[in-house]
Design a protein that fits this description.
Blueprint (H helix, E strand, L loop, with lengths): L11 E5 L2 E2 L9 E5 L4 E5 L5 E5 L5 E8 L4 H15 L4 E7 L5 E11 L11 E8 L3 E3 L5
Antiparallel strand pairs: 1-2, 1-7, 3-6, 4-5, 6-9, 7-8, 8-9, 8-10
Length: 142
């Protein structure tokens, strides 16, 4: 019997500071990336190869929302509060609830407010979060 798995984009959940984000853009709406390679390779003059473990656990999570998403208001308010208090680092979670991928951090902040463009058609708003302690598990779909 053939194994069949299903990816369901509507089962991707992003929670920042306790707020569940909604109103994702049509195409790629979440991107998770580590800031650094896990290991750095070193090759000596004689060809001997060694590696150095990189302990940088930081990363970035980019969330793209529709221009009409009310989550833009929420994220703008978080960014404003951080600029005032200087303490706007909050937990973030990206979870595929129909799969096994999980990305999280206990200290994330909005890198800068999303740029805004206006035109004939509705646009997108891109929010970039810096994550100090990214846990990054890329799993499969169920």
């Amino acid at each position: 019997m053939a194994a069949v798995t299903t990816y369901a984009p509507d089962k991707i959940t992003v929670i920042y500071g306790g707020a569940i984000l909604t109103g994702y853009a049509e195409d790629t709406f979440v991107k998770v990336e580590k800031a650094a390679e896990s290991f750095t390779k070193h090759v000596g003059a004689d060809g001997e190869v060694s590696r150095t473990r990189n302990i940088d656990k930081s990363g970035m999570i980019t969330v793209t929302l529709k221009q009409s998403s009310s989550s833009n208001d929420v994220l703008s308010a978080f960014a404003e509060a951080d600029e005032q208090s200087l303490q706007g680092y909050l937990p973030i979670l990206v979870k595929d609830t129909a799969g096994r991928s999980l990305h999280a951090g206990s200290a994330a902040w909005i890198q800068k407010k999303a740029d805004a463009e206006y035109g004939k058609e509705m646009g997108d708003r891109e929010w970039v979060f810096e994550v100090a302690d990214l846990q990054h598990f890329v799993g499969g779909s169920n």
